[in-house]
Amino acid sequence: MLRKYSNFRSFSDNIKLGGLTAFTAGMVNVVSVIVFFAFTSNVTGHYAILAQEIAKGNWYQAAVVLLWVFLFFMGNFTSNCLIIHNNSKSSRYFAHAVPVLLEMACLLFVGAYLEFFYTETLYETEILVAAMLFAMGLQNGLTASISNAKVKTTHLTGLTTDLGILFSMFTKREFREDVKLQKKAKLLLAIMFSYMGGGIMAGVFYIQIQNYTFLIISLLLTIVIVYDYSKLQVTRYMQRRQPFVRRYIIAGKES
Amino acid sequence: MKLRFIYAIFMAMLLCCIFILAKKSSPEQLIIGEWEEVSWEYEKTDHENGVHVFIDENQKDEIAQNLIIHKAEVWKFTEDKTLVFSKGTAQMEQLKWNMKGRGHILELKHNEIGSENYQIAEINQDTMVMHFNFDLQVRGIVKMTFKRIQKDSYAQKI
């Protein structure tokens, strides 16, 4: 999911990464709406709210929303910075894993704060929403950057646009039979259903376990990191074993 | 050069935000004080000719029957997050309040009934306008308007 970069990524890599991260994004969004009455993974709405607050002359609220949008921007910025400045073969996995680790740290901080320290003041709410938006920015920046913008886990407006265009293309036979377009549609549908599924599950979990829902989100992100780490370790092990394997094959041929 | 200009705009916007947040009162600070109910109106009704209709006392009682805010005239928000409802000189109810979102949601918590959420459409030094959805006879939004009860300082009195 995280090891490969740009066009070296397979359809399977993208669908696994897209599915899992969209699921977590859906969960984060629903939890933030339940707890804080603010969306944290769809920024389009925040732009509309920002314009509305400016028009009404509510400068305090406008400044808060603008800072939230900026935090989402900073998440994307940080994520891509880490990726492009560590694009060597040896450090690539690490560079791709760090944004996920930072995202986990942000979400665990929010969960822990809610559980142990939250006094429900507006100031705390604003800070915690900002932390969640930063986390979502990190995730969206990572997935979009390493997949060559094929996977955007929180950008449902663009995804629905792409799906609309794709399905209109499928009205022509030549496009219907195009494997590339079929795969694209499958990927987009997987992201859409994962996002929705994540949202529904978050609603169910929050009623049962409340702030511990953040632990489940972090667990899912751990799978994203550990899956590739285990693959990497297997590959390294095989590479280390390769001289012996070769010698064994040559010895087998000689006898 | 162009990039520096863009960075400068970003920095200016950020500084503006920080300045506004430091100088302006948050909705949580603005709400502290005593507020008197001025009017109840249907803000939006489902039928096409949705005009503003004032709600009379009977309708008000019916709408507010199952709500925490029933039949109050004065709402007193205190800094320790307590909201006291009163009518005339009688104190009717006391509960906890919180602000959520960007300061646009007022959450009222009652020990027995649970919590209710109201949307703050407008809040300033003098006026507060709250909306809440209801589904009684006609579906729509009730717009509640409040006026701040000004407490004159000693200097103003003399």
Question: How would you summarize what this structure contains?
Answer:
The complex is a heterodimer of chains A (255) and B (158). Chain A is mostly helical.
CATH architecture term of chain A:
Up-down Bundle
The domain count of chain A comes to 1
Estimate the global geometry of chain B from the Cα principal axes: elongated
Rough outline of chain A:
globular
Distance between the first and last residues' Cα of chain B: 61 Å
CATH topology of chain B: Lipocalin
* Number of strand elements of chain B: 9
Question: What distance separates the N and C termini of chain A?
Answer: 42 Å
Structural class of chain B: alpha+beta
CA-atom Rg of chain A in angstroms = 21 Å
CATH top-level class of chain A: Mainly Alpha
Mean pLDDT of chain B: 83
Protein name (chain B): Lipocalin-like domain-containing protein
Transmembrane segments (chain B): 6-22
Keywords (chain B): Membrane, Transmembrane, Transmembrane helix
Pfam family, one (chain A): DUF1275
Describe the structure in your own words.
The complex is a heterodimer of chains A (about 260) and B (about 160). With about 260 residues, chain A is an all-alpha fold. Chain A has a single domain, classed as Growth Hormone, Chain: A. Chain A is about 80% helix and about 0% strand. Chain A is built from 9 helices and no strands. The longest helix of chain A has about 40 residues. The radius of gyration of chain A is 21 Å and the shape is globular. The mean pLDDT of chain A is about 90. By secondary structure, chain B is an alpha+beta fold. Chain B has one domain: Lipocalin (Beta Barrel), CATH 2.40.128.540. Helices cover about 25% and strands about 45% of the residues of chain B. Chain B contains 4 helices and 9 strands; from the N terminus they run H-H-E-E-H-E-E-E-E-E-E-E-H. In chain B, strands 1-3-4-5-6-7-8-9 form an 8-stranded antiparallel β-barrel. The interface between A and B is medium-sized, with 22 and 24 residues. Chain B: This is Lipocalin-like domain-containing protein. Chain B: Keywords: Membrane, Transmembrane, Transmembrane helix. Chain A: It comes from Aequorivita echinoideorum.
